[in-house]
Amino acid sequence: MALPRTHEPSVGALLRGWREQRRLTQLDLAERTNVSTRHISFVENGRSRPTSEMILILAEHLDVPLRERNQLLLAGGYAPAYSQHDLASPSMSAVSEAINRVLAGLAPLPAVVVDRRWELVAANDAIDLFTAGVAPHLLEPPVNVLRLSLHPDGMAPRILNLPEWKAHLLDRLARQAAAARDSALDDLHAELSAYSAHGPCSRTEAHPANTLVVPMRYQSPRGALALFTATTVFGTPTDVTVSELAIETFYPADPASAAALTASRP
């Protein structure tokens, strides 16, 4: 007996999905790309087969991640346009060296490099501030940085403002999952949401009206620290791996925290 065929979504259906995800009408996309609404409609309903150039133009204006742009091209019958190399490969030596220089230069500020699903790629020595007291199983590769932060056996018991920090991380993760249309991030969000937001040291704090960022307040081996994060990404990447890397750096939010971190500099 013949097995039923499985049908992969057409390139038109995939493009329509991305357009709807971005909450754009066909007219909105037409105005952004200088392509007629008629042609966009024909592409989406399968009446017209887009060229590889057209797929990339539409994907660019829909802010489709590079990994998914390759999938769009494959669905349209074309070869992928963006390479994907392992960070340890010789062709990525310049990127690896840049990451190592940045991480070393940021010390004594804790900094990590994560991929698109928040798995740890690299870190500087200052990250020991956060891993002290963490259960060993959470530090076994692949280490998920968000799980490490919010798991009851991870950093959570030492995050003094755990309820608001958890809400911040979950909101960020939800927006990332929606933007990337990545079900694995949805699953991670569901897992992290189930963790308790109340640890032995946690409390909800009111912030002054002039607060610019909500810091993570952490009971570290060097005392209580108030830290906020900044994210750095590579500009104009043409490799999938590079496009998905981000450097998360923790900066002191007050003079006491700055002094505590600076005191650790050799």
TrEMBL record:
Residues 15-69 form the HTH cro/C1-type domain. SMART domains: HTH_XRE (SM00530). InterPro entries: Cro/C1-type_HTH (IPR001387), Lambda_DNA-bd_dom_sf (IPR010982), MLTR_LBD (IPR041413). GO terms for molecular function: DNA binding. Gene3D superfamilies: 3.30.450.180, lambda repressor-like DNA-binding domains (1.10.260.40). CDD domains: HTH_XRE. This is Transcriptional regulator, contains XRE-family HTH domain. It comes from Parafrankia irregularis. The lineage of its organism: Bacteria, Bacillati, Actinomycetota, Actinomycetes, Frankiales.
